[in-house]
Design a protein that fits this description.
3-stranded antiparallel β-sheet; two-stranded parallel ribbon; RNA-binding
Length: 477
RNA sequence: GACCCCUUCGUCUAGUGGUUAGGACUCAAGAUUUUCAUUCUUGCAACAGGGGUUCGAUUCCCCUAGGGGUCGCCA
C-alpha cells in the first residue's frame, strides 16, 4: 500500500447534506489538500428503505456550491469505481462468500420476531442483548436445504470471543474494546444488500483509503471493522473519529431542534464562506486567536493534531454574528447580486439599480443572511403601515411643519449629494427651531413607517425625490 | 444497565508544572449617531469534585461525578 493520502466522504442518501457531514467533508477535503492527497465521494446507499429521491443530487450540488470538489466519485469517475455502493453488489458478494467459506461468517435464518424475543429475554435477565448464535449450530446441509427451500436469511460476521481489539485513533490515541461487547453483526441483509460495516470496509480497502474520517458514534463498532479487515487479510486504514456536533441542550444535533441541512442555510442566504468558516471551527482551531478562515486557509492550516476530542455545540447565534461579518465585508454591488433573487421572489420591483444599491447599503449592517434583507427593506417597496401611536406623532403641529418644510423645499434639496443632504437637513432643524425627536421622528415615520431606523439622509437617498415627497404628502393634513 | 469516548467562562476555544488563566460569541455599561443598526471601549463570566505525585498543580496519575456515544437485517 502506498503512503498516499486518500480520504473519502461517504454519506448515505437518506436526506440532504447534513451540517455534520459538511464538517466531515471540510476536514477530509482540507486534509487531502494539505497532504496532496485525493478526496473521494462515495455514496452509501445500502439501505434501500430510507433512500430520499433527490438526496444524491443535493449532496453533490451542495458540495459544489460549498467549493469542496472531489477527485473521484459519481458522475466524475476514477480508477476505483463505481462510487455508488448499490452498483458494487457483486464485489461485496465475492468477499461475503469468502468470509463464509473461511468460517468467519455464517447464515442466520432468525426472523425479526425471534430476534425481538431474544433481546427482550436477555434484557429481562439483565444480560447484554446479543445474537445467541443459534444459527451457528446449523449444519452445512441444513443451511443448504433451507436456502434451497427459499427461506429468508442474513449473513453474520462471527466475532471472536474474549479478544481485545485495539486501534490507534488519530484523534483519541489508543482505544481498546473487548470483542465480548460486540455482537455478531449482520453483514448481508435478507434483501441481498450488504450492511454499512461490510460495504464500507470492502470499499475503503479497494479504494485504498488511507484515513477514515467519521463521527464518534462509530467508535464502538470499529472492532467489527478491524476484525473484518483481519479476516480478509487486509490492513486497516487509520481511523479518525471526530467529535459530534450537538444541539444547544447537548443532545446529538437533530432535525427536531435545529435546521440540520446545509441546504436550509443556503436557501436562507447565509454566505457560503461563513457557513464553511463557522462549521469548521466546531472542533478545530489553530493555536492563535484567529477565527476567520476561508476554505483555502483551511486547506493550509488544517491538522489532525488540533482537532478537539470533546463534542461541540452548534450555536446559531455565533453563526449569525459570523455571517453578518462576512456580509458587512461585501460591496453593495455583490450584496445586491445575492439579494436580488429574494426580492424578486417577494414581488418587489428592483429594476431601479441605484435605489436597490442604497437599500443594500442600509440592509448590510442589519442582516445575517440574504433573505433577511427583505424585512429590513420592504418599507422601501411597499406602502407603509403606521401605528396609531406614530400617527399621533405625525398629527402634531410641529410634525406637520417639518413635513411642509421639506415638501415646499423639494426643489432646493441636494438629493444627489449625501454630505450636502445631511447639511441641508441639519439646517432645516435650525430654521424651523425644531430639534431632536420632534424634528426627526416625523421624518422617519413618514418615510420609513417607524420612529427607529436608518438615518434620514439615508432614507432620502434610498427613496429619491419623488417618493420622498410623495410619502410626506400622504401624511400631510 | 454494560461498554467506549469526553470534561477550561452559558457557547466556540487558547494555554502552561509557577500566567492577573488569553481570545471570540452572548450579556451589561459607556462612547459615536437625532433614533435603530453598525463600529469602538470597558466590564461580567471558566480550569467538574476528591485524592495523590511534586517545593508547586488547571496542566501528570487514580477515583468519583456529570455529559455524550453504542448496544438494529440504519448509517
Amino acid at each position: 500500500m502506498s503512503n498516499q493520502v486518500r480520504v473519502r466522504l461517504a454519506p448515505s442518501p437518506t436526506g440532504y447534506l447534513h451540517l455534520g457531514t459538511l464538517r466531515v467533508a471540510l476536514y477530509n477535503y482540507a486534509y487531502a489538500k494539505k497532504n496532496k492527497g485525493s478526496f473521494i465521494l462515495r455514496i452509501e446507499d445500502t439501505d434501500q428503505n430510507r433512500l430520499v429521491t433527490d438526496a444524491v443530487e443535493n449532496i453533490i450540488s451542495t458540495l459544489k456550491t460549498i467549493g469542496v470538489d472531489f477527485d473521484e466519485g459519481p458522475n466524475k469517475g476514477g480508477n476505483f469505481g463505481p462510487y455508488v455502493q448499490s452498483e458494487r453488489l457483486d464485489i461485496y458478494k465475492k468477499y461475503i462468500d469468502e468470509l463464509v467459506n473461511k468460517g468467519f461468517a455464517y447464515h442466520c435464518f432468525c426472523d425479526k420476531e425471534t430476534l425481538d424475543e431474544m433481546r427482550a429475554k436477555q434484557i429481562a435477565k439483565k444480560e447484554d442483548p446479543k445474537y445467541d448464535r443459534r444459527c451457528l449450530k446449523l449444519s452445512k446441509e441444513e443451511v443448504q436445504a433451507r436456502i434451497e427451500r427459499g427461506d429468508s436469511y442474513v449473513i453474520r460476521l462471527r466475532m471472536p470471543n474474549d479478544r481485545v481489539f485495539a486501534f490507534d485513533d488519530a484523534i483519541r490515541g489508543l482505544v481498546e474494546i473487548n470483542s465480548n461487547q460486540v455482537d455478531d453483526q449482520v453483514i448481508l441483509k435478507s434483501d441481498g444488500f450488504p450492511t454499512y460495516h461490510l460495504a464500507a470496509c470492502v470499499d475503503d480497502h479497494l479504494m485504498e483509503i488511507s484515513h477514515v474520517f467519521r463521527g464518534e458514534e462509530w467508535i464502538s463498532s470499529t472492532p467489527k471493522h478491524l476484525w473484518l479487515y483481519e479476516c480478509l487479510g487486509w490492513q486497516a486504514p487509520k481511523f479518525v473519529h471526530l467529535p459530534l456536533i450537538m444541539n444547544t441542550d447537548h443532545s446529538k444535533l437533530s432535525k427536531r431542534k435545529n435546521d440540520v441541512s446545509v441546504e436550509n442555510y443556503l436557501q436562507k442566504g447565509y454566505p457560503v464562506a461563513a457557513i464553511i468558516n463557522y462549521i469548521a471551527l466546531i472542533g478545530w482551531h489553530t493555536a492563535d486567536d484567529r477565527e476567520f478562515f476561508s476554505l483555502e486557509d483551511l486547506c493550509q492550516e488544517f491538522s489532525l493534531e488540533r482537532v478537539n476530542k470533546a463534542n461541540g455545540v452548534f450555536d446559531i447565534v455565533k453563526l449569525n454574528w459570523m455571517a453578518g461579518m462576512y456580509i458587512r465585508e461585501m460591496s453593495d454591488m455583490d450584496l445586491a447580486e445575492k439579494c436580488r433573487p429574494y426580492f424578486i421572489k417577494a414581488g418587489y420591483d428592483v429594476s431601479d439599480e441605484n435605489k436597490f444599491l442604497a437599500v443594500m447599503d442600509n440592509a448590510k449592517d442589519r442582516i445575517s443572511c440574504y433573505s433577511e434583507a427583505i424585512e429590513h427593506s420592504k418599507m422601501f417597496y411597499e406602502d407603509l403601515i403606521i401605528t396609531e401611536e406614530d400617527k399621533e406623532i405625525l398629527a402634531q403641529e410641529e410634525s406637520q411643519m417639518v413635513l411642509k418644510y421639506f415638501i415646499e423645499n423639494a426643489d432646493n434639496i441636494p438629493w444627489g449629494d449625501k454630505e450636502e443632504l445631511g447639511l441641508f437637513i441639519k439646517a432645516g432643524s435650525k430654521e424651523l427651531a425644531i430639534k431632536g425627536k420632534k424634528y426627526f421622528f416625523p421624518l422617519r415615520i413618514s418615510l420609513f413607517g417607524s420612529s427607529h431606523g436608518p438615518d434620514i439622509p439615508k432614507l432620502f437617498a434610498i427613496l429619491g425625490k419623488e417618493e420622498t415627497i410623495k410619502r410626506m404628502e400622504t401624511v400631510l393634513h
